[in-house]
Each structure stands twice: as C-alpha cells, then as structure tokens.
What we know:
alpha/beta, seven-stranded mixed beta sheet, 12 helices
Amino acid sequence: MAAAAYGGFAPLPFAFAQSQARSEGAGSGLMAEGRPSITAQGAAILRAAHQLLDEPKILDDPLALSIIGKNSESQLRADPQRYGRSRALRASVAVRSRYAEDQFEAAIARGVRQYVILGAGLDTFAYRHPHPESLLRVFEVDHPATQFWKRERLREAEIAIPDSLRFAPIDFERQTLADGLAHAGFKAAEPAFFSMLGVAIYLTTSALMETLRFVASLPVGTEIVFSYSVPASLLTENQRLARESSARTVLEIGEPWLSFYEPSSLEADLQRLGFGTVVDLGPEETNERYFRNRADGLRVSGGRLMRAGV
C-alpha cells in the first residue's frame, strides 16, 4: 500500500479515492485474489492535486494526473480546490517522494544501479526517468492486485514501460522480499537503493523489521528511505483527534493502520539490524529543507522520514 499516512490525517482523500478507484476499475472482479489498494489511489490523487494547486512544486511529476485515471483526472481538474483543506497531507505526500528521489540521485552518483520501490502504488519515478537497463534497474514491489491495477492505468494512459523497470508482485505479510525480488532479477550481490513511502503504518512490526533486516543484509552502499508515523503520545491533541478520525476511515475501507514508532527506539532498532548510518527527518527539518520562504505557506505538520544506510 502506498497511502497518504505521513501527516495531516485528513479523511477526504481516502473517501474520494474509494469512489474514484471503483470508477477506474478497482471494483470486484478486477482480480480474483483481491482488490487494489484504495489508499494507493488516495496518495496518487494527492500527488496529482499538488501539480495543480502548489507553486513552486516540491515534486514535479508530469505523469501524476494521467496515472490516476481519466475519470479521476477530469474531476480533479474541474475542482482541484476540493483538496484545499488537505494542504499538510498534500505537502507530505509530495515531499516524501521528493526526499527519496533526492537521496536516490546521490546513490546513483555513488554508483548504485538498482532502485527498489516498496509499496510502489501509482508511483511514476520509473516512467519519468527512463534509463537503459544497463544503467539502471527499477523494481516496483506491491501487492499483486494493486500492481495489476496499476498496469491497467499505465495502459489506458499510454505510459510506456521502460526497459529498466521490473514488476515484483509480493504480499509483504505472506512472501519474503528476498524471494520476490530474486524472481524479478534483483542482484543481491550488488548495492541497491530502497524507498518505502506510506507503507510502514500498514505493516505489523515483525513484517517491517523483516523487510529492514533484508535491506541491512545487502552490500555496503545499500540505503533505504521510508516514512513512518509516531505513537499518539507524541501528537498534539488536535493531531490525535484528526488521526483517530482518519483511522476510522481507513479501517472502514479495509486498510487499517497497524504500527507506530518512537523515533529514538526505531533508530536503535535499525542500528541493531546492522545499519551504520541512520538519519531521522522530522517535520521541522523537512519544512526547513523543502518549504522555507514559500509565499503560500505550504508545509508539513507531522510524520517522519527515516534514512538508513549499510
């Protein structure tokens, strides 16, 4: 799942995404094994809304509107202000992708040639940055139903699949990441860059740690960027009430939030797994780095990003 769970906790994108995903083919009968992620559509719609509402853009994504489907795009263009109330959430969805892509550019400069997007949803990185397979291999990892649905969106939007891209359908709770990636052609003997955005909150702690343990087992130069949410005890009263409202919404659509992490404890867990470099980015640092001096006041209000390197 690639959900908009980084900060803001506004239920509107989830509700709209549920109706739009159905209109775009995400209903019963799409896949016998289950439906695609509604929250993945919600995150994608927020990225698309960012393209229409915010200037300068934190994430410049010319494919963000077309990937969400014709009906969703049409309705969003007709009334983008429906997301005016979701500013912090919209900002967080855009900036987490921007931060991951910034860190990946640094990894490329170090010679990394594998990029694994965990819970890819409707992410468009590989299609915005096509490379020859000899220079880069991108692996999109997601639930089989969501991945099938995405490939339908790509076909309908006439977005070409680059030679560098490999799809790796995996159910994180039932399959090992190592086996799924190996089947897709991932080279475990070479360093890689991983991103996992809006996913940790939907995984059990054991599933998250198993994923991170695999990443930590890879060669020196490997790195992961992931977003996570903190426990309610670290939220303000308003943030806590807003989270409770959105938690009820995602529970009703069958994609409940499962796990929250205290930053210093999570850092210690990562170090025990074998990561030598651990950098935590909170909302204050994020706003200073990406939103400073904006005339429109766009900024994040919660959530955190973690970068860990082997």
